[in-house]
Design brief:
Elements (H helix, E strand, L loop, with lengths): L10 H56 L21 H10 L1 H4 L3 E3 L6 E3 L6 E9 L4 E7 L5 E6 L12 H12 L8 E6 L11 E6 L3 E2 H7 L6 H20 L2 E2 L8 E3 L5 E3 L6 E2 L20 H4 L8 H16 L9 H12 L34 H6 L5 H10 L10 H5 L22 H4 L22 E2 L3 H9 L7 E2 L1
Antiparallel strand pairs: 1-2, 3-4, 4-5, 5-7, 6-7, 8-10, 9-12, 10-11, 13-14
Helix pairs in contact: 6-8, 8-11
The site of adenosine-5'-diphosphate has 21 residues, from β3, β5 and β7.
Catalytic activity: L-threonyl-[protein] + ATP = O-phospho-L-threonyl-[protein] + ADP + H(+); L-seryl-[protein] + ATP = O-phospho-L-seryl-[protein] + ADP + H(+)
Pfam family, one: Pkinase
Protein name: cyclin-dependent kinase
């Protein structure tokens, strides 16, 4: 309480002082009221703007989801989410430090459009394991209240002991939440384990639409390869999903047959966004090179490029194309050096003409390549044609283009959709006529041959200075039974 003024000697003085005080308080009250109103107005304005933005975004996504039309121009690109940062680390820093992200587990409740704490996994009954390995756990489950069958994928939590999701998990949720396309798996909600206590979440699960198969298991088990018309149906759907992702500034960075799901109605959907991220145009200057499972990894990544773009996914699409034709992964390198060797044998040796600037890539500086490389058969596409003798001219032109060493020479996913390969006979088979396969995921765990994982989940091999100058001669030797080894220089 204020002490009595030493000047307020008389009753009049006291009255005047009291009046002044009242006036001052009134002014203060009016000022506070004004500030409160202004804050309210500002909040209202912000909420309106956000609602408008959300509505516009939902509409754009809707349009894109419905737009399976291959003729859409590639120049029309929309950015749904602001670029999180110039380099990989920033996104993680942002999501873990700002107040909004601290409430990450308040996701939109399904069907309500409202935000609230994530529901418990106890709302689902586990039916069977689909995949349980060193890197993750996926199960088939049924939502108790609706009876709907879903796939539950447990996210890997930070192994460093810090409470929270690693950056990959945050990105996977964010990107899946933003995506709506018939060839991208849909995320229904995020749920938490029942062992969750206040302030500590032990288990986080993605609730995904369930698909009966993944392409890798189908390819391994099918007695006969896909027909040409079936390869086209699958490839066109893959290109359509990838085009949607790239239009929305998402790089998947781990496209491979085990991440492509297939339902019994012949629909293919891209899954596993654990390696995916948003990029801008131009792409951030420092992106991690440790992406994409080795057998599907583009040569520019193997050569240590720091700024890369959508072409890394298109290389993987080329590898999937080859695998659809033969049922075997196309480039099964034992390590990074061996992977590059196999790539050069299939696609030719890069030259400054075919791939301007490749020499400046970090690991290319120390490569010793054959000088007569321009004449080598692989560079002309004849090795690809010989390896896929049943592929039409248009098909092998598309495959060769996707497997261009120079990333700029690879077609975009939108370009690919327009390729004549899809227009020529045999035409892509209608999805409804697609063959069905017995679903392993429906009854039992999927058992597969070992394949490498994306490098974030394993240890990358070191690419030192490598001498490729003898690879073609060495290959001849190997064909004669002599074996070959690369020399490290
Ligand atoms: P990880 O990040 O651990 O590799 P993925 O998302 O790739 O996990 O899933 C691993 C496997 O689980 C896939 O290869 C597929 O066989 C199966 N799977 C993943 N999502 C689904 C789904 N929505 N429906 C059915 N099976 C799925």
């Amino acid at each position: 309480m204020a002490s009595k003024s030493r000047w307020a000697d008389t009753a009049d003085d006291a009255a005047v002082e009291a009046k002044l005080k009242r006036e001052k308080e009134e002014k203060k009250r009016i000022k506070a009221e004004k500030a409160r109103k202004a804050a309210e107005e500002e909040a209202k304005r912000k909420a309106q703007a956000e609602a408008q933005q959300r509505a516009a975004q939902a509409q754009a996504e809707n349009e894109a989801a419905n737009d399976d039309n291959a003729n859409r121009p590639s120049a029309k690109r929309r950015k749904l989410t602001p670029e999180p940062g110039a380099n990989e680390g920033e996104a993680a820093a942002k999501t873990t430090t700002d107040g909004e992200s601290a409430k990450l587990l308040r996701f939109e409740a399904p069907g309500t459009g409202t935000w609230g704490p994530s529901r418990s996994v106890e709302n689902y009954d586990k039916l069977n394991d689909i995949e349980e390995g060193a890197y993750g756990w996926v199960a088939r489950a049924r939502e108790i209240s609706t009876g709907k069958v879903v796939a539950l994928k447990r996210l890997k939590l930070d192994s460093s002991g810090r409470a929270g999701l690693p950056e990959t998990g945050l990105r996977e949720i964010q990107i899946l939440k933003d995506c709506a396309h018939r060839n991208v798996v849909s995320l229904q909600e995020v749920v938490v384990g029942d062992d969750t206590t206040l302030g500590r979440i032990e288990n986080i699960f993605l609730v995904l639409e369930f698909l009966e198969h993944d392409l890798k298991s189908v390819l391994e088990d099918m007695p006969e390869p896909f027909l040409a018309s079936e390869v086209k149906t699958l490839l066109r759907q893959l290109a359509s999903g990838v085009a949607y992702l790239h239009d929305h500034w998402v790089l998947h960075r781990d496209l491979k047959t085990s991440n492509l799901l297939l339902n019994n109605r012949g629909t293919l959907k891209i899954a596993d966004f654990g390696m995916a991220r948003y990029v801008g145009d131009p792409p951030p200057p420092k992106l991690t090179q440790l992406v994409v499972t080795l057998w599907y990894r583009a040569p520019e990544l193997l050569l240590g490029i720091k700024t890369y773009g959508t072409a890394v996914d298109m290389w993987s699409v080329g590898c999937v194309f080859g695998e659809l034709l033969t049922r075997e992964p196309l480039l099964q390198g034992a390590n990074e050096v061996d992977e590059l060797t196999r790539i050069f044998e299939l696609c030719g040796i890069p030259t400054e003409d075919s791939w301007p600037g490749f020499r400046r890539l970090p690991h290319a500086r120390s490569l010793r390549l054959p000088s007569s490389s321009k004449q080598n058969a692989a560079a002309t596409g004849s090795v690809i044609r010989a390896r896929f003798p049943l592929l039409t001219t248009a098909g092998s032109a598309l495959l060769s283009a996707l497997l261009s060493l120079n990333p700029d020479a690879r077609p975009s996913a939108r370009d690919m959709l327009l390729h004549e390969y899809f227009r020529q006979d045999p035409k892509p088979k209608h999805e409804a006529l697609f063959p069905t396969f017995p679903s392993k995921a429906g009854q039992e765990r999927r058992r597969r041959r070992e394949t490498p994982n994306a490098p974030g989940r394993g240890q990358p091999a070191e690419l030192g200075s490598v001498d490729f100058s003898g690879i073609f001669a060495n290959r001849e030797k190997e064909e004669r039974g002599g074996g070959f080894a690369l020399r490290m220089v």
